[in-house]
Design a protein that fits this description.
With about 300 residues, the chain is an alpha/beta fold. It has one domain: Rossmann fold. It has nine helices and ten strands. The strands form two sheets. The protein has an eight-stranded mixed sheet. β5, α8 and β6 form a beta-alpha-beta unit.
Length: about 300
């Protein structure tokens, strides 16, 4: 069987890297195996390369408690979270989700190969109860991960510095409005009503902020705590959907990326998750263009080894 090296850095030059990992003496490995210098995950070169595509097109099966978890209008497929967790952590890695919802990230960590530890923080007790219901009904099929109920800004302050290998989360996308995809007109039109049911009555819920700037300020506060508890050189992935509110398209992904950068993260890229089964609605027809938003942004950010100036 042929032995070859995969990746951008050939073994002859690897020792000249400035990264500490490059001090390891590289050894030959076979195609399909993990590179001996790979400290990020358990993937082979082929699997690594495939993940770096910036567009993800898939429809996930209704499984792993979906019929219960769908009560949360923005629940994330565990297999999507598994994909992210398996790229951004190695075996034994610790994952944090500060907006855990009904536990998609926790289930994704539990079904990863090998399973990862994941701590979830969720403000709304209702969603935490649904997660525990899914685990109980799974009768041991899905390993349980810890879920803490509370405001993530407070709960994360109890966590140690540099204690997680990945933060993967799906925060509120914006201030929640009763009507969306419109400019305030057509109050009787059902297709202008949002079908995303995930907001609590709590004043601590970021979706109940007094306005978009206040929402961004709160998210920056969250990002600052995320940076503190994340290990150096590790990643945070944030799943977010842009929105159309008050007659205007809002680039939430760009605004959150800028706030994360202000909190000390380095933007590294994004993956576009195209949701092939998105229902199409005639929002602007027949007068104006209003988009059917059928994708979400998976923002990829990294905590640098040293604080940025």
């Amino acid at each position: 069987m042929d032995v070859e090296f995969l990746g951008d850095t050939p073994p002859a030059t690897a020792s000249r890297s400035t990264d500490a990992e490059a001090c390891v003496d590289p050894k030959p490995y076979r195609r399909g195996e993990k590179h001996p210098l790979n400290r990020l995950n358990e993937l082979s070169g082929e699997e690594w390369l495939y993940f770096t595509r910036t567009v993800l097109t898939t429809a996930y099966p209704r499984e792993l408690g979906h019929d219960v978890r769908k009560a949360h209008g923005a629940n994330k497929p565990p297999r999507l979270m598994k994909l992210l967790i398996e790229f951004f952590t190695a075996a034994g890695g610790r994952v944090l989700d500060p907006f855990a919802g009904v536990g998609g990230t926790l289930i994704g960590a539990a079904i990863s190969d090998p399973p990862r530890y994941c701590l979830g923080i969720e403000l709304n007790p209702r969603w935490a109860e649904i997660y525990h219901q899914v685990i109980e009904e799974g009768a041991g099929i899905i390993p349980a991960c810890p879920m803490t109920v509370g405001d993530c800004r407070e709960e994360m302050r109890r966590l140690e510095d540099d204690s997680f290998d990945l933060i993967a989360t799906d925060p509120p996308y914006n201030v929640q409005l009763e009507r969306t995809m419109c400019n305030g007109r057509y109050p009787g039109h059902r297709n202008r009503q949002t079908d995303y049911n995930m907001v609590s009555a709590s004043d601590l819920d970021l979706a109940n902020a007094g306005g978009y700037e206040q929402y961004l300020d709160s998210m920056e506060e969250v990002f600052s705590e995320c940076r503190r508890v994340l290990k150096a050189n590790r990643y945070m992935v944030v799943i977010v959907r842009n929105c159309y509110q008050n007659g205007e398209y809002v680039y939430v992904n760009a605004d959150l990326s800028r706030r994360a950068k202000r909190a000390g993260f380095v933007p590294k890229g994004e993956k576009i998750w195209y949701q092939a089964g998105t229902r199409l609605r005639p929002y602007g027809y027949p007068h104006s263009y209003v988009p059917n938003i059928s994708h979400q942004h998976i923002i990829i950010l990294q905590k640098p080894r040293q604080a940025m100036a």
